[in-house]
Amino acid sequence: MKKVILSSLLGLFAIIGAKAQADSDLVQIGVKGGVNFANLTGDDIGDTKTRTSFNAGFVAEIPFSERFSIQPEVLYSGQGFDIEEIDQNNEFDTDDNVEAQLDYIQIPLLAKIYLVKGLNIQAGPQIGFLINEEIDYQPTDDAGDIDTDVAEDIDFSLAAGVEYKFDGGFFVQGRYNYGFTNVFKESDLFGDPDIKNSVFQVGVGFMF
């Protein structure tokens, strides 16, 4: 819980601080949410499947010109991956798959360039704070959660995507997040594996 509060406050402070540097009359603050298609990438990753989860949070747009804005956000982001059913005899009463859940509070800071009215591209760095880490062998039920402690607490990544923003403040967007930080902690048994987060996001939002 302390991680959630701290990382959320950091994100909100980033939004407030950026707002103070621009014309406050033009700054917009909004909400957004969408679907995550998360997996892992890297030289040392095995056979994993995409985990479908969600993202939701707050967003601000701070314009510095007609075509250029800065967009800070603070989001909950469900990430990780799915594993094929790992027990042939179904000893653990598994569902069709097993989820490795790595859930973050993500704080992206994006540069946003409008190509034409409404249509923009955006890219920038993102820092993620791990708030939940578990294996769930019954992802369609409340049972089956096994807490783990193998992932790094902080994840640095690059976020890039495209968005269309309508006149009324409603917007739709697609984004890809590529991790630079190795997801799992270095250990004597596994060394420092080259395994990083890889997440596609699609979603909608509204600017007030």
Task: Write a structural description.
With 208 residues, the chain is mainly beta. The protein has one domain: Porin (Beta Barrel), CATH 2.40.160.20. It is 9% helix and 57% strand. It contains one helix and nine strands. It has an eight-stranded antiparallel barrel. Strand 4 and strand 5 form a beta hairpin. The longest helix is centred in the first third of the chain and has 19 residues. The chain is elongated and about 55 Å long. The model has no long low-confidence stretch (mean pLDDT 86).
Topology pattern, helix = H, strand = E: HEEEEEEEEE
Distance between the termini: 29 Å
Please tally the helical runs, counting DSSP H or I stretches of 4 or more residues. Answer: 1
Taken from the alpha-carbon principal axes, the silhouette is elongated
Q: Report Rg.
A: 18 Å
Strand order of the largest sheet: 1-2-3-4-5-7-8-9
Number of strands: 9
Q: What structural category characterises the helix and strand content?
A: mainly beta
CATH architecture descriptor name: Beta Barrel
* CATH class group: Mainly Beta
Q: State the CATH topology.
A: Porin
Mind summarizing the main beta sheet? 8 strands, antiparallel, barrel
Topology readout:
Layout: H1 2-20, E1 28-41, E2 51-63, E3 68-84, E4 97-116, E5 119-136, E6 145-147, E7 154-165, E8 170-179, E9 196-207
Antiparallel strand pairs: 1-2, 1-9, 2-3, 3-4, 4-5, 5-6, 5-7, 7-8, 8-9
Summary tags:
208 residues; elongated; eight-stranded antiparallel barrel; mainly beta; single chain
